[in-house]
């Protein structure tokens, strides 16, 4: 019965979103989404998310300086930089390499960079999280990834790349929305929204249990906390936050 209910409600949601499904069928939606809609949406969502999660982020990134290398430099790599919402939390003088699979965030990213001139921006790479071949192995002190693992094509492949680019003793910082408890109504609605949400929001998956991927990756230590961010009207309330050490 629950499966039938999910399928029925998915169909109802698909009918409501029929114009987007039609544009997708015609090959119009994806380029429009990547270039115009998603950069606009992500900037707005980031502003709301920052208000709700500012204290958690401040606490998360508080110990970033602890991973400064023996040379005295702190080299950061951010996967899925997007609009640059995390720049404000990075320590002064750190060197940041920004990456994103979508190159169409220039305006919002430039605004964030102008507001946060306490850090040194080394370069911006258009790269998928699963393929960071432009970044040398063992060259990074800390990798940052927030609200990104939901939409990568291969979570385990991404974590392998993270481990590759990190120096021994380096850290991976994450803050991601995840699947709700499987017995909850929130998980039921995540299942209902899943196909349409993924189409509309550039491949974002609602039901990934990302803590399991982190625990199964080859980190020497994983510190993960399950928290709830009250994003009204969205199915992305459950989050995990923490860091993992190579």
UniProtKB/TrEMBL annotation:
Domain of life: Eukaryota
TM ranges: 7-29
Pfam families assigned: Methyltransf_11
Domain Methyltransferase type: 77-174
Keyword tRNA-binding found: no
One Gene Ontology MF term: S-adenosylmethionine-dependent methyltransferase activity
Keywords for the protein's UniProt record, in alphabetical order: Membrane, Transmembrane, Transmembrane helix
PANTHER family per record: METHYLTRANSFERASE LIKE 7A (PTHR45036:SF1), METHYLTRANSFERASE LIKE 7B (PTHR45036)
Protein name: MET7A protein
Organismal lineage: Eukaryota, Metazoa, Chordata, Craniata, Vertebrata
